[in-house]
Amino acid sequence: MDKIIMKGGHRLEGEVSVSGAKNAALPILASALLADGKSIYRNVPDLADVKTMLKVLGTMGCGTGRLGGAQSDMCEVEVHGPITPEAPYDLVKTMRASVLVLGPLVARFGRARVSMPGGCAIGARPIDQHLKGLKALGADIHLTEGYVEATAKHLTGGTVNFDVITVTGTENVMMAAVLARGRSVLENCAREPEVEELARVLNKMGARIEGAGTSVITIEGVEALKPVEHAILPDRIEAGTLMVAAAITGGDVLIKRVVPEHLEAVILKLRETGCTLTTGNGGIRVRAPQVLHSVDVKTTEHPGFPTDMQAQLMALMTVADGTSVISERIFENRFMHVPELHRMGADITVQGHTAVVKGVRTLSGAPVMATDLRASASLVLAGLRAEGKTDIQRIYHLDRGYERLEQKLSALGADIQRVKA
Ligand code: EPZ
């Protein structure tokens, strides 16, 4: 297993481009199942999770592949004729977003057998709302031997009111409704940019979706969809992570290929810490102050402060001037980066869903362990600031959501490298 070795104390400067959005690519790749033919996607990040989704589609009998060699950002998914509408446990357990094939399979093929994703490090992460939505559109759902068995002669439009705002739940049900007979109205939907991006792709395929990005999405079912060519939007969480990298090193970095509107809450919060952020021609320039102010944050659904940026902001607050109160209100166990940050000298006290972070003058490098995707990112950020050497083990967690992060940081002046353990 690879690990990252780094030495902190280098100010980051220069320009860096953001890769395509993981959390848009995953549902969009699954949506290829809704049309017969070959769909081509550009700006697809080269990530472990994307590889897993392509593998899931491949095991069903779809033609999948990255075009133009490993470094290319182009992928294709080809669906021809009958496929095996199943997603096996050994793949789903490595990436819960595989559950996103459920809606398209039931809608297009009338049947799906998808392993229950089970929990993960950050929480139980049930899919009851996904199943509630599919049932409301007429699917029969049975849970047997750890699998969801969903069948439907033909889905019919209906009203779905989500009890909980769920990103992939909204996406799964939206993908099912596009081929249902009649109108569907989805209420209390997730408003993330990735939901909007999926709707944009589905409409390019011939779907009739309105309201994506708001909490009420209306869908007129159509007979069939056609394959699509699409370039995926930039990853706002990678962009936010790079912004924090500039802030924590006292740097001055221009982050390119970003949609600032997708990061408003993060931009405002970083300005509160004393950073100067200027947006323009598709980029965000981050200039850090000498001394960072401590700020409080509560994670909420979009457009609030994203839970996927909580660990990164916490790393920043460990060296801010003052005390920061961070409340994680989306997932029940998303503070696993705290014990590792403690090893680097951070002063953090966790009480339930709240972490109280008292800024310290310096962090010290140490051997630490990644536990989940965004926790890994927070350890890299702390390592950029810490005095001395930091080794980060189990960085396969990082590879799930960041494309060549160490290369991007090294190009900005960080002393960081990946080594084969
Ligand atoms: C998506 O996960 C993202 N993943 C997550 O990103 C992100 O953290 C999360 O949304 C919240 O923004 C992808 O888009 C692939 P949810 P998702 O359903 O859809 C509860 C990352 O780091 N819930 O919005 O699985 C759930 O337990 C990953 O890139 C139910 O109770 O999250 C949680 O408390 C991590 N029943 C809350 O809703 C359901 O049926 C939000 O979960 C579904 C969800």
Helix content: 25-40%
Number-wise, the strands total 24
Q: Structurally, how many domains make up the residues? A: 2
Q: Pick out the low-confidence regions.
A: none
CATH H-level superfamily title of the largest domain: Enolpyruvate transferase domain
CATH class of the largest domain: Alpha Beta
Bound molecules: ligand EPZ
Shape from CA axes?
globular
Biggest sheet, spatial arrangement of strands: 22-23-1-24
Please tell me the overall pLDDT.
Answer: 96
Q: DSSP helix count?
A: 14
Concise structural overview:
By secondary structure, this protein is α/β, with parallel strands linked by helices. It is 30% helix and 26% strand. 52% of the residues are buried.
Please tell me about this protein's structure.
- By secondary structure, the protein is of the alpha/beta class.
- It has two domains: 2-19 and 234-420, Alpha-beta prism (UDP-n-acetylglucosamine1-carboxyvinyl-transferase, Chain), CATH 3.65.10.10; 22-231, Alpha-beta prism (UDP-n-acetylglucosamine1-carboxyvinyl-transferase, Chain).
- 30% of the residues lie in helices and 26% in strands.
- It contains 14 helices and 24 strands.
- The strands form six sheets. The chain has a four-stranded mixed β-sheet, covered by helices on one side. Strands 2-15-17-16 form a four-stranded mixed β-sheet. Strands 4-5-3-14 form a four-stranded mixed β-sheet, covered by helices on one side.
- Helix 10 links the parallel strand 18 and strand 19.
- The radius of gyration is 21 Å and the shape is globular.
- 52% of the residues are buried.
- Bound molecules: ligand EPZ.
- The site of ligand EPZ has 24 residues, from helix 1, helix 5, helix 6 and helix 12.
